[in-house]
Amino acid sequence: MRGLQLPLTQTQKVRLQRALEKLESLPSKANSNASVTVADTIPVNYDDGFLKGHGTTELSGEVVATVCGVVERVNKLVYVRTLRARYKPEVGDIIVGRVIEVAPKRWRLDINYSQDAVLMLSSINLPDGIQRRRTAEDELNMRGIFEENDVICAEVRGFQHDGLHLQARSQKYGKLQRGQLLSFPPYLVKRRKQHWHYLEEYGIDLILGCNGFVWVGEHVEAKDEMLVDQADKPDSQTPKTIDYSMSLEGQEQMYTPLETRQNICRIANAIRVLSMLGFIVTVEVVMEVVNLGVSQNMDTHQMLGSEFCVLVAEREAERRSQKKTKG
Amino acid sequence: MTGLSLGEKQFIQGGIAQDLRSDGRKRLTYRPIYVETGVIPQAHGSARVRMGGTDVIASVKAEIGRPSPLQPNKGKVSIYVDCSPTAAPMFEGRGGEELSTELSVALQQCLLGGKSGAGAGIDLSSLIVVEGKVCWDLYIDGLVVSSDGNLLDALGASIKAALSNTGIPRVHIAAEASGEDQPELDISDEEFLQFDTSGIPVIVTLTKVGRHYIVDATSEEESQMSSAVSVSINRKGLICGLTKRGGAGLDPSVILDMISVAKHVSEQLIDRLDSEISAAEAIEEE
After folding, report:
1. CB-CB contact of B40 with B57 (8 Å)
2. Which of B99, B78, B76, B79 is nearest to B87 (CA)?
3. Which candidate among A63, B66, B234, B253 keeps its CA 20 to 30 Å from the CA of B131?
């Protein structure tokens, strides 16, 4: 947690301090002999050959860590993985990215990594749903599918010779509209089985990208376009985007309904508070924070205030200490 | 700033139209304001104000100078704002110069009034030491450390806080001089005079998006604005300055409406700011 920038009264500061101390005193589950700080010696068997990786150096015959982190060993490679590292993509990660360039037969996306990711035209499902070879016309119509600055949900396919490749082959992936994108440090999102959550009681999609980009938006039914009858096409595909030539009244009718918007803002604020405090972001924790806000009868914008922040910290400390006593 | 997709832009506009913005605020609600005073010990007064992601620092330095012959009974104040490259990549090198000049001019108009010094928010005649010969020159500098919209309001608030934190050294006149000579001065290091800041106005910026106005826009919301009007209002509810930005034209009735909304918002803002400033000064004294 880097410098909470909120006006805290004296009592709030004391409460926050106490909650944070309680959290720090809880023993962590990982074996603590694997964590090192700068200038700690790394226990290595010097008889076997080994390779010194990132974050290590040789100092008077010993292997010493140059960063604070956790020691990882892969075959003969010994390296130190820092906790607050830049996002490192793995195959199968679900990520949320923004298109920055439309290039021949591909889109380039910004995914909070040191390189831009590439989404090939052949790695997405075409709007008409038919599986066919991409023609030159498809290439010319790329902007009709994804434009610059669009927010897209995709999966990491792997590293190829020209960079990181993504794919968006399932109906769930694709352009995200009618919602907001949040950005925070990627180490707060741990890899789970599910990253794509549909919160039914709110009617909201929550996508926790592994790269620290989180999308909170209105729920969109993933239509299976193969089953749509050709004759029904003009009706069923009512465009959810608003044409700027429509009058203001027409636009207003197509805005997100107030109830859904209220929920979107609450969830977004819950995530903002958690990232400000440096707590891991998972669906359960987010829902708990939202329920805490509702039970305190707080206005949505007060969730970003100092009182709520302190409450969340205290709740989290309680929750974790309860988990410890149970498990 | 990274661009926004069409869906995100519509979400923001829809939120403003329905009085529920992206972070849950109403149209006329400010973000939490965090004030720290005395952040620059070498200056006579300084303050740092944070509104959400926006972070600005203001400092006040006073030097002895000569009043201008046209206004022998008024001191001089100059305001200058600098946009640091840490705020945004586009401010690197000379990129931030245009925005800096725009902010400096807007602040000068709001706080200092016209060229003759009439209608100034800051009382210039309190800066006089010896009429016609010696006065205080105040140099107010603002630094934008991090930008997330609503820079003008944050700078106005930080200048107000810095001025209330300012201590002008007491000056004793050692020897009287006749004619054109400068009198000898004895500037004390111990005693300080507090600047009277009750008359200093605050700046309220109203950003028009679609058909509605919002207060304290984030940089995402500012990218959707058609025009923005910044009104500087003092404690008595009188307007000290008015600036309009943005290319879209506004009907005169809309401007009058915006002014009345700004007046209504400024009452709460002044109270809130005063309590934050006094809390910050109390912490500093500890």
Report:
1. yes
2. B99
3. B234
